[in-house]
Amino acid sequence: MTTVLSIAYPFAPVGPNLVGGAEQILWDLDQALVAAGDRSLVVACEGSRPGGRLFAVPLPEHETLDKADGAWCQEVFHAAVDRALASEPVDVVHVHSMELYGYDFPPEIPLLITLHLPIEWYARETIGKYMDHAQFCFVSQSQRRTGLAAFGDAPVIENGVEIQPFDREGKKSDFAMVMGRICPEKNAHSALEAGTKAHVRVIIGGQVYPYRTHQQYFEEKIEPQLKEKGSPRGHQFAGPLTPERRRQMLAKAKCLLHPTLAPETSSLVAMEALAAGTPVIAYRSGALPEIVEDGVTGFLVNDVDEMVEAIGKVDAISPAACREAAERRFSKERMIERYFDLYRTILQEGPRCGAAAIS
Hints:
This protein is of the alpha/beta class. The protein contains twelve helices and twelve strands.
């Protein structure tokens, strides 16, 4: 029996109703460990519902986090990890978030860090202290290309999603979806602009996290377009969606709009859309050209006007072609087996030491 301690982002719950991609991957691995008869320990925020044992990080009492909250966050995070490591022998620590607040993991326990975020978002002073101890893992080939200098030839394990039954005769509705975190770099307001110009209703499913910049973005860029009288039948903010509701809405949508400005390392929502037989119209950002085959499973565009044009011709994309691509490339089972193989390799090799630090 293997015991894996998974570390989540401390302010997003892990459980059936997920928002973030990193939380989804952690949840999938947690469920698979329990199903395989192994032990899963999870450090995540209050309200999480993993299949394994939860060591909860308290959520702040106020809605918006400032720099002054850093010391408190560090204290409660360290306490939760301390409790988990003291509860029973741990074979592997698997980190899915770089909100580590400088925690000193025991050097005798192998440490795996999956790099879910763009490489340039990792602060050198934050990641540097783990370079001589951790095994890193990329989630896409484009991320690996940008991260070779910093992290060396780490393995790539592409994300995967659950491939649900597919209704080949299902009818599409006349609305487009946007899904994900509501923040400036995700650029959801551009999808609303494109929908207005294309006379297509846009529904946003996602969450506004307790950061001032995220809340300000929603208030200044999203809300005005939701209230705009000229929007076609009214754009809608649906808030966080359960996995089942997300799948239902993606299956009905005529397309997924993904105008992200971030150098995406992966895109679970794009994979989920394809699995539902729904084409993706996305900006050419990070790994998205690896996921969306231009003209076959969707369109890659550069701005709002090109997104409007793509919406106008998206009905020509075959839902069956989207589904086939998802089955062939983005299976959750394939991803889980590769992580389990990596766990076995890490356990055989033992803790890493003496790796080169970031220069």
